[in-house]
Amino acid sequence: MAGQGKGRIAATVHALAQPVAEELGLLVWDVEFVKEGGTSYLRIFIDSPEGITVEDTERMFRRMDTVLDEADPISESYCLEVSSPGVEREIRTDAHLDAFIGEAVRLRLFRALDGTKELVGILEGYDADNLRIGLDETREIPRSAISRINAYYDYSAPADEE
Question: 94-151: what fold?
Fold first, then answer.
């Protein structure tokens, strides 16, 4: 598949990974194919309501290694990585936004808004053009102004007692 773009490769691998993840009781949060230094990395981020264990990543890695060898969607050499997206995971798609409505998010902006390039608030909703974020009041932030969105975890807050 020479000449295939990195985004297209990620989409192809996502489609291959989804049924494998479902068989294992997992979901595919995201897939990225990036070049760092001189090495290409195929990263598959998996999740589940119960969280991800090392064993989950190992099982997914082993299964995907075989699936990728058979499908051969990438013509260049690469390193396969399987991991959890983490507590402060990147939010890149509408499905990710859907999963975080009512949750705290951190927005990084291309240009300062009211003197800051970073906002933390509750994701109240979104449409094709804007995100609605609860700060002191609900504000609409144009998607075009946002460089990155991550889940936000307040490390200074006391942990919930179980």
Answer: SH3 type barrels. (2.30.30)
